[in-house]
Write a structure and sequence with these properties.
Shape: elongated
CATH architecture of the largest domain: Orthogonal Bundle
Number of domains: 3
CATH superfamily of the largest domain: Intergrase catalytic core
Helix content: 40-55%
Number of strands: 7
Number of helices: 15
Largest sheet: 4 strands, mixed
Strand content: 5-15%
Length: 399
């Protein structure tokens, strides 16, 4: 009869302690009602004495309270949490972004923290891990690996596999100094704009340097977003709607902007399109007016590595002694530098490149869904001669 008393059905949230003959241990349980499928929810602990079980029940109830009434698994590791986030928490994102996060995980997170049980991970562990990476990673990379860990634990919390997110309690230290970004001088920019005319990489550089398009915006750019002769009488412009999602939606409204082209860009793009059309005709393939502006040989979006390799070949052709010291992203910093040297307002430049600027810029930008921002094109027309140097779409020397 005493066993019957010990095993009476506990009320919701009530503790129950009983002796289990088969395990020869005391079992403690908390009744939490039923699952949507009708199964009773009773997380349990065990111990050799009732005193030990009562202590474990108190700890369990604290854990349940922190986890919203759910018992977190005891053996769920950091590696499992990060991989679950990579597999489930990034749906709809670009493959390239996912691969970047996966690489950071495999190289920097899993080897150091992967085997740690998530419920036992402490803020000190995360602090020590980040500190050990300060001589290896630049500050931005440190922030990225910390973000991956923090977001992975948040993902686990939402699924009842973590009670707390210790990654939110630590500050990211400064890492090793990154390679300082450089800008082309006016003379260097002029040489670059004359190199490899008639090739796709020349057009790519012209668009990036004179319009300020990001490399991740240029690589997936389609002809549907290029307007060299708008029918509505607007200035020639290009829509750059930066996206890190496979759906094509932009991450923020600032990333969606339409930029007027300097006059020098229009004939370069027109000539490039004509070459594409001629190549399709020769191959007896229909040219796609919505196709990629800079497709690879297989017709896919070019990789960042492919662009970087061709960009450095262009720099070599332009007479640069050390092309490997430059990256395609530095056409964008050069765009900003040239406009700044020319006297263009920093607020206007911030709007052109899609960065956060002053409160006035922010306020004005939010009122515009698809503005054709003309200031950059007008300034570039003044910096560089707008007359094409040849029929194949080159850019003339600055006057």
């Amino acid at each position: 009869m005493s066993n019957e008393v010990r095993r009476r059905k506990a009320g919701n949230g009530e503790d129950s302690i009983y002796w289990d003959k088969t395990k020869e241990r005391y079992i403690g349980a908390v009744s939490l009602g039923y699952t949507p499928a009708g199964k009773r929810k009773r997380p349990k602990v065990s111990g050799k004495t009732k005193t030990e079980v009562r202590r474990k029940l108190r700890e369990l109830k604290k854990e349940l309270e922190a986890a919203g009434g759910r018992k977190v698994p005891a053996n769920y590791t950091v590696a499992q949490a990060v991989h679950d986030w990579l597999d489930q928490g990034l749906r709809g994102r670009e493959i390239g972004s996912i691969e970047t996060y996966r690489s950071l995980t495999d190289v920097h997170i899993v080897p150091a923290l992967g085997q740690a049980k998530l419920r036992e991970l402490e803020a000190d562990d995360v602090d020590e891990w980040l500190a050990s990476k300060t001589d290896v990673l630049a500050t931005q990379s440190l922030r990225m690996v910390h973000s991956v860990l923090r977001r992975s634990i948040s993902h686990a919390q939402r699924r009842g596999k973590a009670a707390r997110n210790v990654a939110e309690w630590v500050e990211v230290p400064d890492g090793r100094p990154g390679r300082p970004s450089k800008s082309l001088s006016l003379e260097q920019a002029s040489a670059v704009l004359q190199a490899k005319t008639g090739t796709w990489i020349h057009v790519y550089v012209v668009l990036s340097l004179l319009v300020g398009v990001r490399t991740e915006e240029a690589r997936p750019l389609t002809w549907a977003h290029v307007h060299t002769a708008p029918k509505d009488g607007a200035k020639p412009h290009v829509d750059v709607w930066r996206s890190v999602r496979r759906s094509g939606d932009t991450k923020t409204r600032k990333s969606r902007r339409s930029l007027a082209m300097p006059r020098a860009v229009v004939p370069v793009l027109d000539a490039h399109r004509a070459r594409q059309q001629a190549a399709c005709k020769a191959a007896e393939v229909e040219w796609d007016p919505n196709g990629l502006v800079f497709p690879s040989e297989s017709g896919e979006t070019r990789t960042a590595l492919n662009v970087r390799r061709n960009f450095r070949l262009l720099l070599k052709d332009a007479g640069f002694a050390n092309p490997k010291e430059w990256t395609p992203r530095e056409t964008r910093t050069s765009f900003v530098s040239l406009l700044s040297d020319h006297g263009l307002s920093i607020d206007v430049i911030a709007r052109l490149v899609g960065h956060s600027g002053s409160s006035t810029t922010e306020r004005v930008y939010r009122k515009q869904l698809r503005p054709v921002i003309t200031e950059g094109a007008e300034a570039m027309d003044q910096i560089f001669d707008h007359s094409p140097s040849s029929s194949d779409g080159g850019v003339a020397e600055p006057s």
